[in-house]
Amino acid sequence: MIKFKVTQLESGVKPIGFLKKKIEGDFHTIKTLIATGKVKINNNNISDDYILKKDDLITINANNLKLKQKKSGVKPIDLKIEIVFEDDKILVLNKPPGIAVQVGTGQNITLANHLSFLEQKKNLDYLNIIHRIDKYTSGIIICAKSPQILRDLHDLMQADGFDKNYVCLCAGTPKNSSGKVELYLKIRDNSDEKVVVTRDKNGKENKYSLSLYKVENTFIFKNKKYTLLNVNIKTGITHQIRVHTKYLGCPIIGDKNYGNFVVNSEFYKLGLKRQFLHSKETSFKYSGKKYKLNAKLPNDLTSIINRICGNKQSVRNEHFQENSNNVKHGSKHNSKKNFKTKKSNSKTFKKSKFSKK
Q: What is the pLDDT of residue 328?
C-alpha cells in the first residue's frame, strides 16, 4: 500500500493530476485505479473530479506500482540530520559539522543527498536550501518546499528581512561587551585566508559587511581568557563572522584559516575538531506568519564549554566596558543600510541558553 498526505501547496487539484507526479503510470492507468476503488481518500472511494484538500490522506492498494523517481540525479542518502521545524512552506534542519551544503571539488556526499532522501521519504516534489553555511559550521539551514517560496525568501533575505544569530567561542576578549563591525571584504582564490579586509570600497569584487556582537560569557582556562560571543549578521558575506572576530582581536577557536595556531592546538587536545561556530537562531516574517527558529548547540561544542567551565577561574561580564564599540574600516556613510543598522544596534540581545550560569 502506498500513502500520500496532501499539503497546502498540493491542494486544489484533482487526484489524477496529483498522482501523475507521484507514481509511475499514464492517465488511463491512474483513472482505472480510481474507478475500481483502489485509490481511496480518507478511506473513502472518490471520483476522478474530486478536488484535493490539505491533509487529505490518499491510499493506493495495488500491486507493482512504483513511485516516480526524482530527476535531480542526486543519490538519496539519509544523513540522520535533525529536523527542528516543518510546515507546509519550509523545512528547517540543524546541520551537523562536516557536511558540505553544496556540491564542490572533493565533495562526494553533501546536504543535497539528504534533501533527496527527504523528498522521497516525505513525498515532496521540491526541497531546496535558501541559504548556505560553511561545511564545518553547524546549525540552522532553511529549505523551501516550492520554487516560489524559494524566490520569496531569497527576496526577503535581500531586503534584510531575516534576523540571524550565531554563537562562537573566541580566543581573548573584545575591548567592549557589545558593538558592531563594519568592513569591506575581498574574496581571494588560492589562499588560506580566502577573505581579507580591504580599504578599497569601490573594488568590483569587494563586499560591504556588517555584524553586531554581544558578549554572552567569558572564561579563563589555563590562565588564558576566552569569550562566548553572540553575533548577529546583517550581511551574508563568505566567512564574515570568522574574519570579523579576527579583526576584533579574538579569533574563533578551532578556525584553521583565521584562528590562532597555538590556541587551536590546545583545544584539539580537548577533542575539538572544527571551528566553534554555530547558527543558533533565525527569525523572519513570511506569508503573515512569524517564524522564530532555534537549533540547539551540538554535543561537540557543549563538551568544550563544559571542559573550560570546569576551571574555577572565570571572568564576569561586568568586567567589560558598558559602552558599545563600533569598529569601522572604510564603512558606508549616510547610506540607507547604515540607517537600518543604527536601528538594529539598539536591539536587546537575549542571553544564550548556552551561557555559563
A: 55
Closest CA to 303 of 263, 273, 346: 273
Q: Quick one: fold of 82-153?
A: Pseudouridine synthase (3.30.2350)
The CATH code of domain 2-60 reads 3.10.290.10
Residue 344: phi, psi to the nearest 5? -65, -35
Taking CB atoms within 8 Å and a gap of at least 24, the contacts of 114-118 are: 114/77, 114/78, 114/79, 114/81, 115/74, 115/143, 116/70, 116/72, 116/74, 116/75, 116/76, 116/77, 117/76, 117/77, 117/78, 117/79, 118/91
What is the maximal distance between C-alpha atoms in the chain? 78
The reported pLDDT for the residue numbered 25 is 81
User: What would the grid cell of residue 94 be?
Assistant: 540543524
Fold for the domain defined by 165-344: Pseudouridine synthase (3.30.2350)
Integer CA distances (angstroms), 186 to 39, 181, 204, 233, 258, in order = 58, 15, 9, 17, 14
At residue 67, the 3 state secondary structure works out as strand
Is the separation of the CB atoms in 256 and 264 below 8 Å? yes
Residue 323 confidence (pLDDT)? 41
pLDDT per position as a tens digit, 284-294: 999 999 999 99
Burial track 305-337 (b if 16+ CB lie within 10 A, e otherwise)? beebeeeeeebeeeebeeeebbbeeebeeeeee
One-letter amino acid at 35 equals A
The Cα 138–Cα 111 span in angstroms is 12
CA dist 272 and 355 (Å) reads 18
Here the cell at position 277 is: 561556530
Mean pLDDT for the chain overall: 84
Dihedrals phi, psi of 284, to nearest 5 degrees: -170, 170
Decide if 2-60 and 82-153 have a common fold. no
* Domains in the chain: boundaries: 2-60, 82-153, 165-344
Q: Note whether 171 and 250 are within 8 A (CB).
A: yes
